[in-house]
Amino acid sequence: MTARDYLRVDAFLVDMIGARALASAFEIGLIDRMLAAPCDLATLQADVRIDAAGLHLLLGMLRAHRVLEPAGLRLSAAFLDALVYRDLLEAKLQFANLVAPDFLHLFTALLMAPQQFMEQARLFKLFSYQRCFESTPDNLAQTARWMRLTTALTKYEAQACIAEHDFSGYRRMLDVGGNSGEFALRVCRAQPGLQATVFDLPLVCDIGRQHVAREPEAARMAFVKAPVEPVALPRGHDLITFKSMLHDWPDAGMADFLQRAQVALEPGGTLMIFERGQVQVEAGQIGYGQLPLMLFFRSYRTPETYCAQLNRLGFTDITVRQVQLDMPFILITAIKGP
After folding, report:
1. Is 153 in the same domain as 21?
2. Domain range for residue 330?
3. Which of 100, 251, 290, 295 has an alpha carbon within 20 to 30 A of 149's alpha carbon?
């Protein structure tokens, strides 16, 4: 397997009809029943408790979208290959289905009145960061909901980053806005001598600790809770990373984070930005699975924007790599002077 093999899930997330049919097949247990053992049509209908007409329609849709072989009751070889990444496939389905009404009903507002879109869209109700400070059952449940989605994405995107950059020379890593700790976890797993600190909002850190608690790398990972007001970043790290975090902030906020990182980073240390680049519609049709990420299209910056800020802060040896995943990614590294 390669670091990009997970992208095969996108073949089953191309359009809304096929993706919705696949989501229903997961929800009613049809996929799991077909994985368990071969069966005939009557047994399948009884086991998933669906009437004949409903099963006929669903099976036809799944065949049309290559989830099933053209004949018989067998999952296709291509789908079985994608099912290796089931956690990602289901997360992308859930995420796209959740925000599909935003695209269907509010796309004109997104184009013409972005503030109105932000106020009305389900997308921004999901990512409600102001609920990440006070520990209540509702806030924990809401935060955990979007963290499941971002963690599934990061689990696989991290592998591509690790394939592109040599992490072997670092001792201590600080992942700013590190979410559940998944990115730091993957880097620590690749580098057994590395220690990592995740800096994020209080409830995110609480959920993150639980997320990594059973992993062998947990002993090398720490979580530091960020207060409401901006504070200095933790010091003592020779690598500071920003993975899919800076796009959440306007230019002034992005510049502030990079400035605080420059102050906290050890002399000679590396600052890394691994972010989605701007949406490139010309490269091909946007798939349904990319819908949630496309709705953030105004937030994605050019590499020149980040590099200009790094230059202003006195960083040297600034390098930029384009990494093509489900969307274009930018991998930027820069060195702090002595």
Report:
1. no
2. 127-335
3. 251
For residue 166, is it within any domain? yes
Q: Which amino acid is at 161?
A: C
Q: Which amino acid is at 281?
A: V
Strand arrangement of the beta sheet that strand 265-276 belongs to:
221-225, 195-200, 172-176, 237-243, 265-276, 328-335, 316-324
The CA angle 225-230-235, to the nearest 5 degrees, is 65
Task: Examine the fold and report which residue of 89, 119, 139 is the final residue of a domain before the chain moves on.
Answer: 89
Tell me the backbone φ, ψ of residue 104, rounded to 5 degrees: -70, -40
Q: What is the pLDDT along the chain (338 residues), one digit of tens a residue?
A: 788 999 999 999 999 999 999 999 999 999 999 999 999 999 999 999 999 999 999 999 999 999 999 988 999 999 999 999 999 999 999 999 999 999 999 999 999 999 999 999 999 988 989 999 999 999 999 999 999 999 999 999 999 999 999 999 999 999 999 999 999 999 999 999 999 999 999 999 999 999 999 999 999 999 999 998 889 999 999 999 999 999 999 999 999 999 999 999 999 999 999 999 998 887 667 899 999 999 999 999 999 999 999 999 999 999 999 999 999 999 999 999 98
Could you tell me if residue 96 is inside a domain? no
Does 111 fall in a domain? no
pTM, full prediction: 0.94
Q: How far apart are CA 149 and CA 153, in angstroms?
A: 7
What is the Cα–Cα distance from 83 to 8, expressed in whole angstroms?
9
